[in-house]
Amino acid sequence: MCSKPHSRGGGLWVCHVTLSTLAPSGRALGVYEGQAQPGRASGGPSRSSFPPSVWPSAAFRALAKTPAALALNKTQHCKQLEGLVSAQVQLCRSNLELMHTVVHAARQAMKTCRRAFADMRWNCSSIELAPNYLMDLERGTRESAFVYALSAAAISHAIARACTSGDLPGCSCGPVPGEPPGPGDRWGGCADNLSYGLLMGAKFSDAPMKVKKTGSQANKLMRLHNSEVGRQALRASLEMKCKCHGVSGSCSIRTCWKGLQELQDVAADLKTRYLSATKVVHRPMGTRKHLVPKDLDIRPVKDSELVYLQSSPDFCMKNEKVGSHGTQDRQCNKTSNGSDSCDLMCCGRGYNPYTDRVVERCHCKYHWCCYVTCRRCERTVERYVCK
Ligand SMILES: *[C@@H]1O[C@H](CO)[C@@H](O)[C@H](O)[C@H]1NC(C)=O
Ligand SMILES: *[C@@H]1O[C@H](CO)[C@@H](O)[C@H](O)[C@H]1NC(C)=O
Ligand SMILES: *[C@@H]1O[C@H](CO)[C@@H](O)[C@H](O)[C@H]1NC(C)=O
Ligand SMILES: *[C@@H]1O[C@H](CO)[C@@H](O)[C@H](O)[C@H]1NC(C)=O
Ligand SMILES: *[C@@H]1O[C@H](CO)[C@@H](O)[C@H](O)[C@H]1NC(C)=O
User: pTM (2 decimals)?
Assistant: First the structure.
């Protein structure tokens, strides 16, 4: 925690250091953390402009925009939530105490998606744009596969975490593992209640795909599959977490429990699966139609892979019909050789330099005990945007 420099304090930042900010699991914030999002007229699309099949992009966007002031403590409030199919409104009524968590999960999913794709041509911004920008998410593309998986993971993650923090009256900590802990460790703390998160999250996420008459069967199967992949990635993120005890942090005794990784770590895992996603077709296999890999290899779809039905555009040029915003004016990195490099980001069109001033904390000094003072330094950096 750092406080802004006081005008009288000679531009000193003061940061109080706690153990948790020093923990190895602590991560640097993404570079896009403080960046303003392009402003858009509020009001949003009306409920009727969404076919119910477009969860989570519609429901999530609507939920993420739910004003903080909206009370969610009466069943009548469920009707005020936009974008939900009737089965979800029903779930809302019977699990009202979950709804704050679901709304929180929607916000987390959007933020996490944008962060995970900040360095890509497709940067997840369409998750909150007007309906006519939705093609990238509604066509059954690789991008929509990622969004469905992440959304399903986000809901279950949020519910499991809410159990741990005691925010949900209806659930408690997860199980104490059956195996013995490591030497010097003991089980304790409060494990994330993953099974409850998965159960309730799946009910909520998958409800629209179970609606009979809407959307194509292939799309629904794709969404269900990818949501399950998201939950699988969440399951895989369960890890042992420990807290040290002992004289002055000597860590002679540790209390350990099973906890979920942060959603952004789950998103990183899903992004890897996005990059190697499999194109599938809806084809009869045996007595029913299934999603099977489009390429010649005859094998069923794996439980661990994200699948998509439609190829994506290259997202280089603006083309609203296919949901591409183009990369004109996107920032690129001249020294990177990854997806954010100017070559790849700008699709070979070239880029324009501009100078930017950055203010940062510098000359930081640690004082015993326990705070850090820093100076405030300004420098100019050259940045580049795509032509
Ligand atoms: C419901 O929420 C509103 C606004 O947050 C609050 O004023 C009201 O007292 C709450 N009602 C109950 C029954 O908790
Ligand atoms: C998780 O929460 C559910 C719902 O309250 C509860 O029934 C279950 O016992 C909890 N799981 C464990 C392992 O305690
Ligand atoms: C994401 O891409 C859109 C369209 O190219 C752009 O307008 C927006 O500024 C980008 N967002 C970020 C955070 O780079
Ligand atoms: C550009 O990429 C390089 C190499 O990956 C990295 O070290 C640097 O921090 C990046 N610059 C910006 C502004 O993101
Ligand atoms: C970038 O280049 C370095 C050195 O040539 C290489 O080790 C690294 O794997 C490359 N990264 C990517 C993303 O291509």
Answer: 0.80
